[in-house]
Amino acid sequence: QVQLVESGGGLVQAGGSLRLSCAASGRTFSKYSMGWFRQAPGAEREIVAAITWSGGSTYYTDSVKGRFTISTDKAENTVHLQMNSLKPEDTAVYYCAAALIETGRFDYWGQGTQVTVSS
Questions:
Q1: Edge-to-edge strand ranges of the sheet holding 18-25
Q2: pLDDT, position 100
Q3: CA 21 to CA 1: how far, in whole Å?
Q4: What is the pLDDT of residue 81?
């Protein structure tokens, strides 16, 4: 059974940084892509960044390019999202998710972690 557990959220001032972590367990993830999504109050869930487990391919939504970095730590079975130069509009619940590369469908989700950026 796949389990994804996020950590690292919190309250930070605009311009600050946070590092989110997602501990993945339950199977070998070499055939998976891992993604970070976020959902702000009243808004739809959106993808923020994604990475193949090997780390060979990454994706970032335009609003976070140059500020956020997604990475995998295969030894620790963990996916990180380093968030720099945070803005109030980055405030949201951030979710980690996993998708089989062959389907591209994010079937597994963590419980989410709150990120709040104050102005």
A1: 3-7, 18-25, 78-83, 68-73
A2: 94
A3: 19
A4: 98
Which residue numbers in the chain have pLDDT < 70? none
Q: Is 61 exposed, middle or buried (0-12, 13-18, 19+ CB in 10 A)?
A: middle
Structure tokens at 82: 């380093």
Question: Minimal CA–CA distance to 20: which of 32, 6, 33, 34?
Answer: 6
Give all strands (DSSP E) within the chain, no chain letters: 3-7, 10-13, 18-25, 32-39, 46-52, 58-60, 68-73, 78-83, 92-100, 106-109, 113-118
10: left (phi over 0), alpha (psi -120 to 50) or beta: left
Residue in 58, 18, 8 with CA at minimum distance from that of residue 48: 58
